[in-house]
Amino acid sequence: MKGYWIIVGTEVIDPEAQQEYGRLWKPIAEQYGAVLKTLGTEALRELKGGSRVIVVEFPSYAQAVACYEDPAYIEAKRFALRASTRELVIVEGDLS
């Protein structure tokens, strides 16, 4: 089964940090076969403090977890956490 990161975040407050995260994320995403799927604000229900939802699809749950634990991602994540406040959940399934 596929793996997903479901990320709920606030608006970006540090555009430079977000840009650096994007730069670092690109090769990591390619390595793990990650596909970004941004959901519209209509997906937000009963949510406090979030204004955007991002779903990252991986070929498998194991790859989703391995990517999150990869030292390169851990480094990149520092910039994501400076860019905005967010919550990330890793789930297994098929959201197609």
Structure explained in plain terms:
The structure is a single chain. With 96 residues, this protein is of the alpha+beta class. It has 3 helices and 4 strands, in the order βαββααβ. The chain has a 4-stranded antiparallel sheet with strand order 2-3-1-4, covered by helices on one side. Helix 1 packs antiparallel against helix 3 (71-83). The model has no long low-confidence stretch (mean pLDDT 92).
CATH first level: Alpha Beta
- Mean pLDDT over the residues: 92
Could you say how many structural domains there are in total?
A: 1
Helix content: 40-55%
Tell me the series of helices and strands, N- to C-terminal: EHEEHHE
Largest sheet: 4 strands, antiparallel
Globally, the shape reads globular
Q: Helical element count?
A: 3
Structural class: alpha+beta
| Gross CATH architecture | 2-Layer Sandwich
Distance from N terminus to C terminus (CA atoms, Å) equals 11 Å
